[in-house]
Amino acid sequence: MRLNSPQINLITRACLKASRSLIRDFGEIENLQVLSKGPGDFVTSADKRTEKILIEELQKAHPEYGIITEETGIINKSNTKNRWIIDPIDGTMNFLNSVPQFAISIGYEEDGEIKCGVIFNPIMNEMFCAEKGNGAYLNNSRIRVSNKKKIKDALLVTGGPKGASKIKDKIFSEYINVSKNVSNVRKFGSAALDIAYVACGRFDGYWQRELNYWDIAAGIVILKEAGGFVDFFEEDNSTPLKKNILATNPNIHEDLRDLINKKD
Ligand code: IPD
Ligand code: CA
Ligand code: CA
Question: For ligand 1, what atom is nearest to the CA of residue 102?
């Protein structure tokens, strides 16, 4: 890895440490206690254990930093200048089904902007990371978004709706509209890895509604540093941690936006 700022080193170390128990847990899924958080949304003891290790490691270096996490909520709320944004397991449903498509995702935000991020799939041993101004990497190799020019040739990825979603019909009809106009659409079940895969050119673009900030914080900087475009649509200022994201290579961004806005 050619990125070696203190923040990246810290996040990387925390991910590697937390991933040791995560890999063990993945090998023993049937023994994990599963608690339901609501329809279509589960939290396992592995989520909580992983998050605890990540928080402990990051706090050793910066006890005063704010932290936004999926499982614990907000820590050091008054510090909005320096914040870690943590999803201990993005892709819990895959994890629970022994599908090795999940990742630890950690972003570091300074003055409201994501400065660096790491997304680590411990089973595939793939670590995506980026730092503003210094490029994006997959393990030791620099990554870039694809160069696909035409939306009709694009291979896209998306996700949702969640079990409890109130806009399922809207999401399904959007999916149909987009699918009819592109090469194909995949659903892999980890928003963080979906964006990382756009960043390294495996997919040409990604869109999804009803995400949380921790699903995508690290992915935002990784995609931008890989030459991609990210923005948000139909933002609701009353729930700033909820996001509808559009993340693509630069060539197909406008076309995908038009397809999403198109009504049948
Ligand atoms: C979920 C995954 C999934 C996405 C859901 C997220 P979780 O995160 O990113 O791909 O479709 O909206 O909630 O619950 O596995 O951390
Ligand atoms: Ca998530
Ligand atoms: Ca999660």
Answer: 15
Ligand 1 pocket member 90 (CB < 6 A)? yes
Whether 104 and 194 share a structural domain: no
For residue 193, give the 3-state DSSP assignment. helix
What percent of the chain has a predicted confidence (pLDDT) above 90? 84
- pLDDT at residue 44 in the model: 85
**Ligand 3 centre from 53 Cα, in Å?**
14
CA of 219 to the centre of ligand 1 (A): 13
pLDDT of residue 263: 64
HSE-CB of 28 using CA atoms within 13 angstroms = 12
Q: Is 117 in the pocket of ligand 1 (CB under 6 A)?
A: no
Atom of ligand 1 minimally distant from the CA of 210: 12
The predicted structure's pLDDT at residue 264: 58
> What amino acid is encoded at 58 in this protein?
L
- DSSP-based three-state secondary structure for 87: strand
250 in a structural domain: yes
Please classify residue 141 by burial: count the beta carbons closer than 10 Å to its beta carbon, then call 0-12 exposed, 13-18 middle and 19+ buried: exposed
Residue 253 is part of a domain; what is its CATH number?
Answer: 3.40.190.80
Ligand 1 binding pocket includes 211 (Cβ within 6 Å): yes
Q: Let me know whether 129 and 155 are in one domain.
A: no
In this predicted structure, the answer to whether residue 42 has a pLDDT above a threshold of 80 is: no
Give this prediction's pTM: 0.96
What distance in Å separates the CA atoms of residue 168 and residue 163, rounded to the nearest whole number? Answer: 9
pLDDT of residue 49: 94
Is 96 found in the same domain as 195?
Answer: no
